[in-house]
Fold this protein.
Amino acid sequence: MARQRLPKVLAKQEIKLLLQAPNRKCPTGLRNYCVMLLIYRGGLRVGEVCGLRQTQINWADGTVRIIGKGDKERVVPLDFDTLEALTQWKAVKPKGSKAFFSTLRGGSVSRQYIHAMLNRESEKMGIQHTHPHMLRHTYATELLDEGFSLRDIQQVLGHAHITTTQIYMHVNPVQLRSKIQQRRMSE
């Protein structure tokens, strides 16, 4: 059986730096920040972000309806900060574009743009070899560390099979060491 590689994740400090990189005072910076948030705090895939329409966002209940792989639909709850940022982008984004995340001329942002933007912002903050799926991996790993069940994470990420989600069960060596040390002290 082939050995499955563990997903690469960003440290909390790296995520914090990355989210500080875009200049949110200009429209493109705000858009880029929102794109990062939806991948990191919503677990969306790059293609799902590129294809997002404003009608998929339910502003009243704070969710986004995603049509994912295999045309499967899922509803993703968003935190307050992400919703607030999306509301700010909605107010300044070019009117008339079908895509929620558009260029300033109204065209859709592409996968290639998101990859390049994330690389540019990462390098600016001294973070090397970052790709969009790392943000999704980081989100899933953080949810698991916070006590969310695999089923919850599976649902949010839109995985068809729980075995896909189980890769996030990789052991965090720092947390494991802490648990082992606590166990020994209590004996």
In short: The chain has one domain: 12-186. The domain at 12-186 is CATH 1.10.443.10 (hpI Integrase; Chain A).
